Amino acid sequence: MIYNSIQLFALQVPTKISLPFDLYALTVPKDWKDLFCKLQKYKHGKNYVLPPIECLNQALTISIDDEILFPSANAFKLTAKTHWFYCKSNNISREHIVNIVKNWLNISFKDLDCLTTDDIQKIHSLSANDLEFQQIKIPETVWSIENGELKIDPLYYSLIPYLIVSAIVSEPLSLIDPTRDQVFEPLQFHECVVEKSNVQEIISWPPIIITKNKKKKDSEEKEKPTHYYSFLLRFAFHYNLNGEPYLTCDYGIRRWVSWELSYLSTGKTVYISPTNSKRFASCKLKYMGKQRGIDFEGNLVNLLQSLNFKDKFNAQDVFQTPYKNNDLAWGVVYGNTISRSHHAEDGLFPKDNAIFHKACLERIQNVLGEEFCFIEPYLRCDNDKLLKKPRSEYNKVKEFIKKHFASINTSPPFYIPPNLKLVLLSQSKEAEELIRPLAKKYGIDDVTIHSLGALGAEMSGKNWRTDCADRIKEFQKLLPPSPPSQKTLTLIEILPKKHFWKDARKDPKPCFRPALAMLGSVTDHFEPKDENDKGDLLTEAEFNDEITKLEAAQAAAKEQGKFVKKKSLKSNFSHRIESSLKSGLSMAGAYFYPTFEVENFPTDVASVGVYKIPFYIGEITKYLPVAVRMDKSGVTAKAYGCDEWLDFYLFQIKMASGAFESIEFNKKKVQNWVFNNLFQETKQPTIYCFDADNLRSHGLLFLQKKLWRKHFLAFDTSENPKNEDITFIPTSKYPHIRIANIIAPNTTEVPIYRACDEDGNLEGHTAGVFHPSSKGSECGYYYLSNQRPESRSGGILQESKLVPLAITKNDKTGKPKKPKPQAQGYNPRGVILSLTLQEADCFSDWATFVQCQRLYGMIQYLDATIFPEVLHRAVGLDAYRPIQAIREP
């Protein structure tokens, strides 16, 4: 159903606020900063590495948790003028703070053997007299807009989220069942000390208990293991493109491990709340090498135990008992990389989010005032008719891809490179049987099958770099190179990542793309067939026989008044191979470019996605800026330092082979490449798409919200990389370019949304381009919402993890359905888009063009993607880093 408005789950921030306490702050004495940075230089030999203050700030916050509000991560920079931490009182024991600092110094720098007598004297001379609390007077006006810019004290970015969570944790939060209008679950929340100062996180504790009957391993006996999960709430302060602040509200679930860990393949996050503390702090539990074994990364636990806490425990205690709920509490966070499944699935449903949001909003308004309320609704731009033709074209793509491979007798409705060679490196007969009919569906006749054999065997795990080099040589020795005049796609059947969970360094998959690129092929891989999976219909005759049987069964059921659920005729295995094949075809240059026809809109518009890819060279991180270009004629790409646009297939092969040189981080180089190379050479109407979080602080100032302009691009003219001298260049200087700046959900800046009916009631999904209701459709910034994914065809409004909902289908309609904490939660999502265009352009048309490429541009995915197809491809080039630029597991 099409809805004309949506509501984002975010709160307005009032222009004035009254603090319920006096605010004080403590500054790090300059002598302390000099000493700490000197010690850090002794330890690392580098001036720019800050002292390891995370554990110090955590220890201070949870040991003085009634008074300290939040610390500042940058307070120990030599040039920083920020306060160390903020508090409600100036009566905090300064001797206690000095004691914590000295213990921290002793633990953090105990192995230094180069301390001078003067250094030791300075450490011993740290005194409570060095510390002085200062009362902070903050402006009565929280924020204002002056000359189009937001004016706000930076302190509010941390203070307001703190006030929000402080209100919620002050007493149990009552959740109300909307079907009965009764309180059903009071939950006590606790603060978590997190690194990002503008994100406040709280968890419910004690956790929720969930049990489930299951068979014991290798036995017919049943057991009923107990698992645990908490509710996780996050609040973050941001501002929109118009400068108006808002608070994002993110509600979810945090699951805990409740069984003894047998092995750590990767580090696991542990949340710890010491005796007499109301807060949790996090640290990492990981394998630290043969000498230390499994231990805590960092010094938080050692520091807590040195501060006369009653709690005495070590990493082995947490490893053996990952969940503990006494005066001393801890929990190891469950992640999907853990081989054992959890009774509870991740995420909440829309009904659950609404329940939490209502409860939190009532508490916030009771404590802080009713000025905290929903931000304004967003209204649909009247451009949906522009998507009719691309939607119709893309429906043919979807229809083709969904068809069974044994029933296809038509050509693909999208471009596939001619004379493509398909190679399968198999580990099973089932894969060999399936690959030819699947290839035939996509018009591929040249199919070669080899056994993967030893190329897929575990590596030794002793020296990862050497193992990778040896495995790549084996590929070159055992497989022939691809013909230079023919594109080649290689699919590999290989055991999944979880098979190598005991030691990720033994997993050979990181070698595949670099090895095959050196042989002139792009590649993708898929997992072998599961023993419980069904068989496949390999011929048209088998397919037609099965269709006849199904039609007869449906007719018989209809006569009896029964309903037969439609089942897929493809096995899960064939779905996996076809998904891998589609992904590989995209790498080989297959594409679909939707037709977008609008009055006064340029014809033959090209799209370019620009992205900065990290290269992990030893301990140094370098970067390779890349650009991918698409139009009706095909897909090309280029990298920083590359003069010409290369065929996308060839670009990936060169990139994975190490043909492009990465650069050390340099804002000027990135800015000059984009302006003086990409923009300067653009000769046809082109929209450049950027992931804001990837480049806005790495050279492209025009991606920063405060520097966004509708027809101008911010440019730094300063020659000094430490300073900025900003000028604004009119887009008319580059008459063919347009800019699409996309903020993705992983930034915490993008709230989830709900569609609204005509009465303002919250509903489910609706795909569209929406603008703030107080602004016109040409305002220049938008919320692009996703349609309901096909995997959620059953709907999400009839599911809940909190309350029973009425069944709406089949003969049990109206009866209550139990809450389903074991179901995968899902909520309608979208992205925030801002545009910088030419003077005569229609903003809502270009926003719809970007939305079109999110919804109707992919062949490997049939649902909405975060980024338009061209930027999605640029981000995906991360998978084609050369082996020397891949981080060791």
The residue ranges in which pLDDT falls below 50 over 5 or more consecutive positions are: none
Globally, the shape reads globular
Helix proportion range: 25-40%
The averaged pLDDT comes out at: 89
**What structural class do helix, strand and pairing data support?**
alpha+beta
Count of individual helical segments: 19
N- to C-terminal distance: 46 Å
Domain pPIWI-RE module N-terminal: 19-361
Organism: Nostoc minutum NIES-26
Protein name: pPIWI-RE module N-terminal domain-containing protein
Pfam family, one: pPIWI_RE_X
Q: Which SSEs are present, and which pair or pack?
A:
Blueprint lengths: L4 E4 L1 E3 L11 E3 L3 H15 L9 H10 L4 E4 L13 E3 L6 H15 L8 H8 L8 E3 L7 E4 L2 E4 L3 H14 L3 E5 L4 E6 L1 E5 L5 E6 L3 E4 L2 E2 L6 E2 L2 E14 L5 E12 L11 E6 L6 E8 L6 E4 L2 H7 L8 H6 L2 E3 L3 E4 L17 H19 L9 E3 L7 H15 L18 E6 L2 H13 L4 E6 L12 H15 L9 E6 L15 H10 L3 E5 L13 H20 L12 H17 L17 E12 L2 E12 L2 E6 L6 E2 H9 L10 H15 L4 E6 H4 L16 E5 L9 E5 L6 E7 L9 E4 L11 E5 L8 E5 L19 E2 L9 E2 L12 E7 L6 H13 L13 H8 L13
Helix pairs in contact: 2-3, 5-8, 10-14, 11-12, 12-15
Protein name: pPIWI-RE module N-terminal domain-containing protein
InterPro entries: pPIWI_RE_X
Pfam families: pPIWI_RE_X
